[in-house]
């Protein structure tokens, strides 16, 4: 369980990254932390990449259908325009943001804001996805969450693509992906080669 660091003295900002496979609870955890910030009386704003139209245009939605209003953006320089009174910023589907998101979230932290970033750690190939490596490097707090392997019930670490597309970006959920442990993911890829 992630508990918010205690503020003391001059407010300083920081970066939190929540990552894992699909269905691992990234969006649920992001929503949980943002709701707690609101309960604490902090002003929160949520953003997501404009490309993410899976569930809706202007909200982040978990696979459990919990949701928060979110502003879709195509350029993360937009984050630098948030009003001063916004002290907590949430980003979902961070894998789809452009590389400059790393620079922009660090500027926000420098301005004393808490930035909570959720996104896939790996793509369907098992490769780091988008800016995640750099975001993990510069974050103060990192949380890796796990799904349950659809094949064996162990902890899942990988997102296995069920369709034949080789495009890195293919929006979808259970019709196109399933969570798998490292072993079942590797087995699936071996069987595909036969
Ligand atoms: N294989 C799975 N393992 C764990 N949770 C799953 C799985 N398949 C569906 N779920 C559901 O997905 C929810 C997590 O949704 P969400 O937070 O949107 O995940 P993520 O953002 O990581 O894709 C879980 O609470 C659970 O109800
Ligand atoms: C593995 C993988 C996923 N995607 C897409 C599929 C979904 O639309 C999102 C991830 O959603 P979630 O909140 O983590 O469930 O990303 C993709 O485009 N490419 C991939 O390799
Ligand atoms: Zn497995």
From TrEMBL:
Q: Which residues bind ATP?
A: 20-27, 92-95
Which keywords has UniProt assigned to this entry?
Answer: ATP-binding, Cytoplasm, DNA synthesis, Kinase, Metal-binding, Nucleotide-binding, Transferase, Zinc
Q: What is its main location?
A: cytoplasm
Cite the binding residues for Zn(2+). 149, 152, 181, 184
| One Gene Ontology cellular component | cytosol
Q: Which positions are catalytic residues? A: 93
Describe its assembly. Answer: Homotetramer.
- What is the name of the protein in this document? Thymidine kinase
Q: What is the lineage of its organism?
A: Bacteria, Pseudomonadati, Bacteroidota, Saprospiria, Saprospirales
Instruction: Please state the gene responsible for encoding this protein.
Output: tdk
């Amino acid at each position: 369980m992630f508990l918010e660091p205690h503020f003391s003295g001059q407010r300083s900002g920081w970066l939190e990254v929540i990552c894992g496979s699909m269905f691992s609870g990234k969006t649920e955890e992001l929503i949980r932390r943002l709701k707690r910030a609101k309960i604490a009386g902090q002003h929160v704003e949520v953003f997501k990449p404009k490309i993410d139209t899976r569930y809706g245009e202007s909200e982040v939605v978990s696979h459990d259908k919990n949701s928060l209003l979110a502003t879709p953006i195509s350029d993360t320089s937009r984050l630098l325009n948030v009003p001063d009174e916004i002290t907590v910023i949430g980003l979902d589907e961070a894998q789809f943001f452009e590389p400059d998101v790393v620079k922009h979230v660090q500027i926000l932290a420098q301005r004393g804001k808490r930035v909570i970033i959720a996104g896939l750690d790996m793509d369907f190939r098992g490769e780091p996805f988008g800016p995640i490596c750099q975001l993990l490097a510069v974050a103060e707090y990192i949380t890796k969450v796990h799904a349950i392997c659809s094949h064996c019930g162990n902890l899942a670490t990988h997102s296995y693509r069920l369709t034949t597309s080789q495009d890195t970006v293919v929006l979808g959920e259970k019709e196109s992906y399933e969570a798998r442990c490292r072993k079942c993911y590797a087995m699936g890829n071996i069987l595909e080669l036969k």
